[in-house]
UniProtKB/TrEMBL annotation, chain A:
Disordered as annotated region, ranges: 1-42
Keyword tags: Membrane, Transmembrane, Transmembrane helix
Record carries keyword Iron: no
Keyword Protease part of the UniProt annotation: no
TM spans (from-to): 69-92, 104-124, 164-182, 188-211, 223-242, 277-300
Classification via Pfam families: ABC2_membrane_6
Cleaved signal peptide residues: none
The name this protein goes by in its record: ABC-2 family transporter protein
Superkingdom assignment: Bacteria
PANTHER family membership: INTEGRAL MEMBRANE PROTEIN (PTHR36832:SF2), SLR1174 PROTEIN-RELATED (PTHR36832)
Matching InterPro entries: ABC-2_transporter-like
UniProtKB/TrEMBL annotation, chain B:
Pfam families: ABC2_membrane_6 (PF06182)
Residues spanning the membrane: 26-50, 148-174, 195-215, 235-255
Protein name (record): ABC-2 family transporter protein
InterPro entries for this protein: ABC-2_transporter-like
Keywords: Membrane, Transmembrane, Transmembrane helix
Keyword Flavoprotein: no
TrEMBL record, chain C:
Gene source species: Streptodolium elevatio
Domain ABC transporter: 16-256
Major location (coarse): membrane
Domain of life assignment: Bacteria
Protein name as it appears in the record: ATP-binding cassette domain-containing protein
């Protein structure tokens, strides 16, 4: 079919407007014709980092607008925290000794930091990607020069940072004021806890992301989502400290599943349940799990994107 | 009357049809959610691994409290769980289309999108309850047998009342959903353990304020034939059904007020 | 002997195909699957700086083609290169070279003010500050953005949002701008503003524009090359005038008379299309002749009250084109 331009083309010697970049030739495809400057890997790295930070800050700001939900959520945290502390304190008193190796004060800290941590690592449903796939909005995500995994991870870390300020602070302060909490004795615990919480968020995010990726294959992701939420709820220690379980079960969970890395390990670090070296080892375990889960996400996503079917002709 | 019943039946039938289209998800849903009913029981068992007693109660006794409370909660969740949608309906303005139809708004909210997947949980918690009753090795009397049947229903009525009351707040305060959760799911958490472990301020709110001591604790005391360590007289435990009826009536009145409020402001 | 390298076409598609599997219930438990070809072999070459309109009935494969070109969907067959690269394997590289505006989806951050979206896009696309500022300033002026630059995106009207989307698509200086039904749902004023902007952009020759639309007024205004697809295939590729010529759509002259003609006049090159109103209105169809001759002849005859000349109706032509393929 003949292709003919109906409008007269302006002479090519015209100076390009703000949107212009000048024509490119067949010689260019492998090099970037857009920037005349040589692309250095250092600049590419700083660009990537800045892009990541910007996306994270968007996640942060998005969640800081949910002021009312935050207050209601904190209220819920305090109520549940008070109940859990009562139950676990009764366990410690009646049991005598150290249930699961914790003192009563350590259990109190476990509960209050845990209530705050629930929202930072997000042990509940997260269906944003799945919903966008179902609606076809994921196309917008694929149009950006960023890997969707990186973009969503950045946003989630931003959200977690916001939760650190909004949801962790109040329960911990409540516990400090009204209860006898165990306070870390070693200075190294604080930075180690920070790393641990970051790793826990990453593991949790990777798990949720994997579940959402199933939306590319399944019509309805409720099943896998339930499976994940259930597993991560029980097996991460949010119902009862995993140290209450028999030793073989603990080994199985720690080394065989990513779940303790999401909740139990950071809390054990906070209450100094184990010595410094062991605590550092568990944090390392978390990082290994995070790497594994992310690798899995990359592999599955590659397949998923090819399978994409977007509604509308 | 016959027309309304038929209307509800058709609504429910349509729901079954549309929900079963997502077959795999439905099966997974029904299967997995029933695992969740084991959770509180499992937690109690795990706790007793590290302690011989909890709040002065043994494993059998604590299990009875938990199983009873859970059973009642799941019945309530199945029956009136949908009421939590009120929040969403009011926010999105869908409440108007509900009020326009010639059916009771409460009935519509409950019948629309009826959560059949929750039936699995009810069945499972019923089985657990029966199992725990056997395990508890009770001294059966005719009165206790009747109470054993009535208690879960009373617990269900109590939790339903909390669900409805919590949801009604949405008519005055649109984003109150999460606050209500603190009382509904918090109530379930509270009722699953002996009331003796809690500090008095928590007890006043949940045990007596919301009446949730009657969801599991008091009936269990009566069934076990144990006096209350907190000092309430024995006959109080047998008032469980009455307390449930009062709570449910109060909740319905509150609901009616909420609807009237919505109609008058039309927001 | 040195040759100047050939300028790469902005878009080149050869035998482009996309198949979808559709599941259908056949009886109580069984399900059959069969393959539907949404795009069934599309050949298209678009040069740099061109503006192309891509139209077709619903389900013709327009949006599917666009999604393949932008790297969102993987083609089932054929060859495709956009800005010199293959879309799906080089998705991220391509993303920097193209801008996309979806009529019904948004590229902006919903909760943040429009200004913030623009700022963030600078970092996402790694655009040098000066370039970004220059383009943003141009868009602010041409699209009148200042009034709502600080409003959160979710509070914008559709017209305002579309102006924001186009700006967002152009800030990183793409070479090709894809628009998928950009005027859908817009009020008349916004449509005109948008069309004006795109027309100027296209006329500048810096940006290749590929636009899918249902609104044929878009096509007429932007004066592009027109590609019509139906059932996944290209049925016309040329200018608007060629479309009219090929499908024999004609200009019409509507004549209102004081008294009906006793005998309908015969003028070479003009045929009577229909007679209305008891003979008081006669519609002539012109077969490639100018209207002047016919009007002069009729004026001689006398009794003319009013004359109107109607341009060929593009909707009619396209509808006929669709119907032919159905």
């Amino acid at each position: 079919m003949p292709s003919a331009a109906a409008c007269p083309r302006p002479p090519s010697s015209r100076k390009p407007g703000p949107f212009g970049r000048g024509p490119y030739t067949d010689a260019d495809p492998d090099t970037d014709p857009d920037s005349g400057r040589p692309s250095s890997s250092a600049r590419a790295l700083s660009d990537t980092v800045r892009c990541f930070l910007v996306l994270a800050s968007a996640g942060f700001r998005r969640y800081s607008t949910y002021r009312q939900a935050m207050i209601a959520g904190v209220f819920t945290n305090v109520v549940f925290g008070a109940m859990l502390v009562a139950v676990l304190t009764a366990v410690a008193e009646a049991g005598g000794g150290r249930p699961g190796g914790y003192t009563a004060a350590q259990l109190v800290t476990f509960v209050w930091v845990g209530q705050g941590l629930l929202n930072v690592v997000w042990l509940w449903n997260w269906k944003e990607l799945a919903d966008r796939v179902a609606a076809g909005d994921v196309a917008s995500d694929l149009l950006r020069p960023v890997d969707p995994l990186a973009a969503y991870a950045a946003a989630d870390l931003g959200r977690a940072a916001q939760a650190l300020l909004g949801r962790l602070l109040v329960p911990v302060v409540f516990g400090l004021v009204f209860y006898t909490m165990y306070l870390p004795q070693h200075a190294v615990t604080y930075p180690l806890f920070a790393v641990s919480v970051t790793a826990a968020t990453l593991v949790s995010f990777a798990g949720r992301y994997l579940v959402n990726l199933s939306a590319f294959w399944l019509l309805d992701v409720r099943g896998p989502a339930m499976l994940w939420t259930l597993a991560v709820g029980i097996l991460s220690g949010s119902y009862f400290p995993l140290r209450f379980l028999p030793e073989w079960a603990q080994w199985l969970l720690w080394c065989g599943t990513p779940f303790p890395s999401v909740f139990q390990i950071p809390l054990d670090v906070a209450v100094e349940r184990t010595s410094g070296a062991t605590a550092a080892a568990t944090v390392l375990l978390q990082l290994v799990w995070a790497a594994l889960m992310f690798a899995l996400c990359v592999v599955v996503q590659r397949r998923a994107v090819v399978r994409l079917v977007v509604q509308g002709g | 009357m016959g027309d309304s019943a038929r209307a509800y039946r058709e609504l429910v039938r349509a729901q079954i049809r549309s929900q079963s289209q997502y077959r795999l998800s439905f099966a997974l849903d029904a299967g997995l959610t029933s695992v969740m009913t084991l959770l509180e029981i499992l937690t109690v068992i795990v706790l007793f691994r590290v302690t011989p007693e909890l709040g002065g109660f043994s494993l059998r006794e604590a299990l009875l409290i938990a199983a009873l409370c859970e059973f009642g909660f799941h019945i309530a969740d199945l029956a009136v769980g949908n009421i939590e949608d009120v929040n969403r309906y009011v926010r999105l303005g869908l409440m108007d289309s509900v009020l326009v139809r010639p059916l009771s708004p409460l009935g519509q909210l409950l019948a629309t999108d009826f959560p059949f997947r929750k039936v699995g949980r009810v069945v499972q918690s019923a089985a657990l309850y029966v199992g725990v009753l056997v395990y508890a090795d009770l001294d059966w009397t005719p009165a206790r047998a009747v109470l054993a049947v009535v208690a879960p229903l009373s617990a269900a009525a109590l939790f339903s009342a909390v669900f409805v009351a919590g949801a009604t707040v949405a008519f005055w305060w649109i984003d109150s959903g999460e606050i209500a959760n603190a009382f509904t799911y918090g109530g379930r958490q509270f009722g699953s353990y002996p009331v003796t472990v809690y500090p008095s301020w928590l007890r006043s709110v949940f045990a007596y304020g919301l009446g949730l001591a009657f969801a599991g604790y008091q009936p269990a005391l009566a069934l076990l034939g144990r006096p209350d360590p907190l000092g309430t007289p024995a006959w109080v435990a047998w008032c469980t059904p009455a307390v449930a009826a009062v709570a449910w009536t109060a909740a319905l009145l509150l609901w009616r007020t909420g609807i009237r409020q919505y109609r008058s402001t039309g927001s | 002997m040195s040759r100047t390298p050939r300028v790469t076409p902005a878009i080149r598609a050869t035998g482009l195909r996309k198949d979808f599997t559709v599941k259908r219930k056949a009886g109580r438990l069984r399900r059959t699957t069969h393959t539907v070809a949404a795009v069934a072999g599309v050949d298209l070459t678009v040069g740099q700086g061109e503006t192309v309109g891509y139209i077709g009935p619903n389900g013709a494969g327009k949006s599917t083609t666009l999604k393949m070109m932008t790297g969102v969907l993987t083609p089932s067959g054929g060859e495709l290169s956009v800005c010199g690269v293959e879309p799906v394997p080089r998705r991220k590289q391509l993303a920097r070279r193209i801008g996309v505006v979806f009529g019904q989806r948004s590229q902006l951050w919903w909760d943040l003010p429009l200004r913030e979206s623009f700022r963030m896009l600078r970092y996402v696309y790694a655009v040098p500050e000066a370039e970004h500022a220059e383009r943003l300033a141009a868009c602010r002026e041409l699209l009148d953005l200042d009034a709502f630059l600080d409003t959160p995106v979710r509070q914008l009207s559709l017209g305002q949002r579309m102006r924001g989307e186009i700006t967002a698509a152009l800030l990183h200086g793409p070479r090709v701008l894809f628009l998928d039904e950009p005027t859908i749902g817009l009020d008349v004023v916004s449509k005109q503003a948008l069309r004006g902007f795109l027309a100027d952009l296209g006329a500048g020759g810096d940006v290749t524009i590929m636009l899918t639309t249902h609104d044929l007024a878009d096509i007429e205004r932007l004066c592009p090359r027109l590609v019509v697809v139906d059932h996944g295939r290209v049925v016309h590729d040329g200018t608007l005038a060629e479309l009219h010529a090929r499908h024999g759509s004609q200009r019409r002259v509507v004549v209102d008379l004081d008294t009906p003609y006793d005998e309908l006049p015969h003028v070479p090159g003009a045929k009577v299309d229909r007679v209305e109103d008891d003979g008081h209105r006669v519609v002539f169809a012109l077969d490639g002749v100018p209207a002047g001759g016919l009007i002069a002849r009729l004026a001689q005859q006398g009794g003319l009250r009013d004359v109107a000349v109607l341009e060929p109706d593009i909707e009619e032509v396209v509808a006929r084109l669709y119907a032919r393929g159905a």
